[in-house]
Specification:
This protein is of the alpha/beta class. The chain folds into two domains: 194 residues, Glutaredoxin; 120 residues, 3-Layer(aba) Sandwich (Glutaredoxin), CATH 3.40.30.10. The chain has a five-stranded mixed β-sheet with strand order 3-2-1-4-5. Strand 8, helix 11 and strand 9 form a beta-alpha-beta unit. The longest helix has 14 residues. It is elongated, with a radius of gyration of 23 Å. The two termini are 26 Å apart.
Length: 341
Amino acid sequence: MKTIHQLTKTALAAGIVSILLTGCYQQQVSSEFEVTGVEASLQLVQSGEQSVSILDQLKTFDDKALDIDHAKVTHLVFMNIWDSYTGAGAETQVAQLPEHYLQRSQQIWVQPEINVTQAQMAEFQDYYPDVAPLVLDQGFQLMHAYQVWQSPYHILLQGDKTLFSGDFAELKNYLGVTDTKPAKSELVAEVLAQEQTSLQPSKQYRKLAAGDLAPNFNGTTLQGKAFSLDQQMAADKDKPVSLVFLDSLCPMPHFPGCEDKLNRLSQTISSARDRHWVGVMSSFYVDQSIASQFAERFSLTLPLVFDTGNQIFEQYGVHGTPYQIDINPQGVIQSRGDTIH
């Protein structure tokens, strides 16, 4: 794992590693809660003096003041919005936490300022209105303040006092939540269904899938040549096309194994001459000169289209790299995924 100091040299702060965990909790059946984990935290909130938190100075991504309820535990959820579109977002973790905890805590969702724009944040909020308040961590201020190096990641606070810091497995242990499933009953099923659906997207999100017609795109390669997907396919109607989406900021913790995949890509291109290979380069945080240095470093010989504004990435619903989309000679998407083949 790279340190925050190392990552800032390439305008990044930390890796985004998403893990979809499933399970449910066993609720303590007693007249009093055991004074451990969250209960101890809640007692601190109820009895201790309240201090002014750095959160009181924050605003949501759309410049609205945060309404912090100091009578509750503040739960910072460091997330990656792109994971939510795949069903593996941080909201799926929060949905597994006990109801009594959720009622006595306040979640604040934090998206690091990496590979995301204000418009994309607004679009995400439209799909996931319950993931709120949503903060864009500009300049990685919160990540620096709370020493967060990955996401999803969870911080529990009382004012400026950190009560807990850790990943989801550590959070469950802190809260006394186990993965042992209780005996199935209609009541349990109903409770779990309510928790899982409370943070579901409010409208359907769909990215291009196998069987869809691949949309055309135009651009300019790093060599300065005009490129059109339709023209490329028309030039040789018998060959399929493989699009490979790349990010010149590799290596990065939130794209694990990217160097190995890039080395494999060069080898695959050399041996798989039965198709056209086209690279699409992310433009986030870099210019064409950096992208060109990246291509030279990894000996990439395929035509590389510099995706200004990451419009092609968005068009094809790609949020991680390296990523490959295969298109058959008829212009139909055959497969997509993060395996280079």
